[in-house]
Amino acid sequence: MRLILLGPPGAGKGTQAKLLAHKHGIPQLSTGDMLRAAVAQATEVGKRAKAVMDAGQLVSDEIVNQIVSDRIDEPDCARGFILDGYPRTVPQAKALGQMLKDKGLRLDAVIELKVDEAALVRRMENRVAETTASGGQVRSDDNPEAFRKRLVEYREKTAPLSEYYAGTGELRVVNGMENVDAVTAEIERILIPA
Ligand code: AMP
């Protein structure tokens, strides 16, 4: 099963991707996690991406397209994968389409988690509080200023993907304001034919 999860920061893409990945025995491919790992390891990509990520802006299409293409070639992706946070721009979506075609693969669904924007900042604040309470490391872009910038980037560059995938006939929309289990159940209903 090959799936894209779309939605603004804080919509619950990561949570749903983890649950679905576990259930279906396929990996969650989060470009955000991959980039954070590159930053932590201070690789060339990590060095180029760090300041851009901390400012809540998008890393270049060229970098993320390459990361995803390499990751999809790894053996654990043979049975499928869940893309979480990629594509994030129309050029990335086009690059992904070409990449999959070149690899002889196709998508099963593109699922958008629709959420009320007013809830997003609250969700980010809850995530920070939970991470802090559990002694975890808070993301350097989970602060009000960077988060606002991430929302602007989403509206300008990522939201147009809904129209793009509506045009290809692949888009399915789910109400992301429901509780976690209800959202998972709604996604599973969409995936039954896949
Ligand atoms: P995320 O964990 O998905 O919220 O991503 C955190 C940050 O990583 C984003 O704010 C961007 O700076 C960067 N990032 C993650 N995925 C992408 C992508 N597909 N394109 C560009 N930048 C990305």
TrEMBL record:
SUPFAM superfamilies listed in its UniProt record: P-loop containing nucleoside triphosphate hydrolases
Gene Ontology terms describing biological process: AMP salvage
Pathway of action: Purine metabolism; AMP biosynthesis via salvage pathway; AMP from ADP: step 1/1
Highest taxon listed in the record's lineage: Bacteria
Main location: cytoplasm
Gene Ontology MF annotations: AMP kinase activity; ATP binding
InterPro entries hit by this protein: Adenyl_kin_sub, Adenylat/UMP-CMP_kin, Adenylat_kinase_CS, P-loop_NTPase
Positions that bind AMP: T31, R36, Q57, L58, V59, G85, Y86, P87, R88, Q92, R139, R150
Subcellular localization(s) per the UniProt record: Cytoplasm
Region (NMP): 30-59
EC number: 2.7.4.3
Keyword vocabulary terms for this entry: ATP-binding, Cytoplasm, Kinase, Nucleotide biosynthesis, Nucleotide-binding, Transferase
Cellular component, GO, one term: cytoplasm
Binding site for ATP: G10, A11, G12, K13, G14, T15, R127, E178
Pfam families: ADK
Top-level enzyme category: transferase
Assembly behavior: Monomer.
NCBIfam families listed in its UniProt record: adk (TIGR01351), PRK00279.1-3 (NF001381), PRK14527.1 (NF011100), PRK14528.1 (NF011101), PRK14531.1 (NF011104), PRK14532.1 (NF011105)
Role according to the record: Catalyzes the reversible transfer of the terminal phosphate group between ATP and AMP. Plays an important role in cellular energy homeostasis and in adenine nucleotide metabolism.
Domain remark from Swiss-Prot or TrEMBL: Consists of three domains, a large central CORE domain and two small peripheral domains, NMPbind and LID, which undergo movements during catalysis. The LID domain closes over the site of phosphoryl transfer upon ATP binding. Assembling and dissambling the active center during each catalytic cycle provides an effective means to prevent ATP hydrolysis.
PANTHER family: NUCLEOTIDE KINASE
Family, as annotated: Belongs to the adenylate kinase family.
Protein name: Adenylate kinase
Taxonomic source organism: Paramesorhizobium deserti
